[in-house]
Design brief:
The chain is about 70% helix and about 0% strand. The chain has about 120 residues and is mainly α. It has a single domain, classed as DksA, coiled-coil domain (Four Helix Bundle (Hemerythrin (Met), subunit A)). The structure holds zinc ion.
Length: about 120
């Protein structure tokens, strides 16, 4: 994977994240209060179940899931594993990553996962 591409994706992910966070902050008082009570470090490695629970209460499972995916993708960039499928370890296509920068699985694994969850 090209370093340049990863840099672009990292920036994209940060943008999506801050947009998501600012939308949520603007529309959701509970979330705003929660964010103000946290420092960024807590959020980045929000391993705490308590924070998770409160976030889900405030913003709903769907947005929480998206934030988590973005964080995981950012972590994978740091680990040098960005763009590799978390399931089969194969490379995720560049087109797919451009469309969904926080995709953690290749298209094959993603669709079999979705079939399984249906
Ligand atoms: Zn895969």
């Amino acid at each position: 994977m090209e370093e340049n591409f990863i840099e672009i994706m990292q920036k994209k992910l940060m943008d999506i994240k801050s947009e998501l966070v600012s939308n949520l902050t603007a529309s959701n008082a509970d979330f705003k209060a929660l964010m103000e009570g946290l420092d960024t470090k807590d959020l980045v490695d929000s391993a705490s179940d308590d924070i998770d629970r409160r976030m889900i209460e405030a913003i709903g499972a769907q947005d929480m899931k998206r934030l988590r995916l973005i964080d995981s993708a950012l972590t994978r960039i740091q680990q040098g594993k960005y763009g590799l499928c978390v399931r089969c370890g194969k490379r995720i296509s560049q087109t797919r990553l451009e469309a969904i920068p926080y995709a953690l699985m290749c298209i094959n694994c993603q669709s079999s996962e979705e079939r399984r969850n249906r």
